[in-house]
Here is the input.
Amino acid sequence: MEALMTGLAALWDIQVLVALLIGSIGGVLIGAVPGIGPAIAIAILLPATLFLPQIVGLVLLLGVYGSSMYGGAIPAILINTPGTPVNALTTYDGYSMTRNGEANRALSLAYSASFFGGTFSILIAIFCLIVLGPYLKDFGALFGNRDILMAAVFGSVLLVFAHRQNMILAILLYFVGFMITLVGRQTTKKIDRFTFDQEWLYSGLNLIVVIIGIFAISQALYLLRGKDSAAPEIKMSGGLFQGLFELKKFPGVATASACYGTLMGIIPGVGEFVAQFFSYATARSISKDPDRFGHGAPDGLIASETSNNAVPAAAMIPLLALGVPGEALTAMMLTVFYSKAIKPGPDIFELNPDFLYSVFIALLIINIFVVIFLLFTTKYLTKVIYVPNRFLGAFILILAFIGVYSIRNSTIDCAVACVFGFLGFIMRRLNWPLVPIVLGMVLGDIIVKKLTAGASRVKTPWDLIDRPVSGGLFALICLILIVGIGSIIWERRKRANR
Here is the structure.
């Protein structure tokens, strides 16, 4: 309980509260504007967090991370355009409700479902910290370099299977990200790797610069290339509070969806889309009117918004406990931890338990504030969806270059960001996933460092998995490979027999 009070006290600071408010409101606005998304916003904000105090910078990013999907539901429901990619499923029933004259009901349902999902996940995490806290101090003893190495490999395998529609492409892009981490001079043995005698490459390629290039600059170019579409006409009717307490009519759907979101968030590389798929399928299977799904079913909207908002808090668990990010947003969070000398991993339960409480309590406060904020400002926020794409593109581009240059006052970093920006733009045009490159860099760096650190104890390949944790993770990897490859072969045979 002492750690809980200390973590709560760390948030009771004017700078932290201001950062929390700015991050929360900014996240809602960013989510409400189609074409930006939290990944781009966090990529732009990353350089600024390097100059902010530890908890202030983190709370700022958590605000964007935890609130963007709330805002993303607004255009998904009103104009059939998801504000963030994970709000795509919200359009199925949310937009249909708008066409049926129930826009405000759909919005308030989405807000209440999002709040329930996010709060459910956060309270589960805090409960586990309180109940298991006395035992987690010994958790770090179970993890050595080889165990963390195997956890990173486990995350890599899950990442590949999360892109099962483009698995080969995901592997290649992950390998590209992995190779990028090798660029630079190894400090211990003074070995140059892919530097080509260029001094500016000795320190390697900065992860934040690459992230800003691939996500922010590429999206800016994509928006600048497109045309501004005509503003849609939206008819708003009914009170915004009318669907706020309607969630209690669907307790089974809400609880099951929150559980799916929490579970899928804990598993690295899975995330919101899989959670939504299971939640939506479950909601339809238990519905008394399954044919209504896709045509304005409130339980379909609840399933989508509850599950996707339960993921962010749960995704922080593998990041904090193992130092293994599950997707691009948590990978960006990891760079903030490293820049502030916070080392996520099993030891954090003993060394920084108050920090863990600060993270989850901050997410809880964010959810409470965002719902209150949205209930009173939605009629004004709907104007945000009319912002022209080209204006957004130019604005993002300017902020991206300011952010890149501020990191090390380097024009070379700006040039590197441009290269990766054009690469990201090409990938967007080809509809290739961007996440494998970023996670290839993050997880690849973990794999290389832990393999190097544990090399003295590795004489044979068996030595990598001779510990309980690494052995268990290796067994899970084998199981996933067998099941995943088997399902792919079965699907191909099924299609061939048609």
